[in-house]
């Protein structure tokens, strides 16, 4: 029997995550039945659950995948860039928003999920905090506010933006709002407004 290459396994896993993202966004966690997951991924339940132990593991992997992508953007360009990317509509923002909202709902209603998610959500906070520390060392970040406070501020703005977009409110005109958020965390030089 021929062995399946790691590239094939990785591609199959990506196919499952991409299809599942759409399914969870459209139907929510409970509504994303195995049949709907099969339809969304184009694969059988056996193929799906060969890669993921159960539906919750699949959902957590999807949310973790999103968190890793966001943390990578944060490390290179900052959390405000993640927000700008959401406004620009790259990488299926509606599907990402749906997954993000489902994570928020499950965090409120499922203590077991909350415990499993806590370690994953720390990645984004850590990436944001490290980026801000580098910015402070470079003299770009304001130094009159603790980095942990600035981290919490940016995360709250992200959550507000996610809620705004998820409610279907207009994204037009929010670029200047993000400019203001960015300006708020920057160090102001003497003689500048």
TrEMBL record:
Q: Where is the HTH tetR-type domain?
A: 10-70
Sequence intervals crossing the membrane: none
Keyword set, alphabetical order: DNA-binding
InterPro entries membership:
DNA-bd_HTH_TetR-type_CS, Homeodomain-like_sf, HTH-type_TetR-like_transc_reg, HTH_TetR, Tet_transcr_reg_TetR-rel_C_sf
Q: Which Pfam families match?
A: TetR_N
Q: Which residues bind DNA?
A: 33-52
The GO molecular function terms of this record are: DNA-binding transcription factor activity; transcription cis-regulatory region binding
Name the chain's protein: Helix-turn-helix domain-containing protein
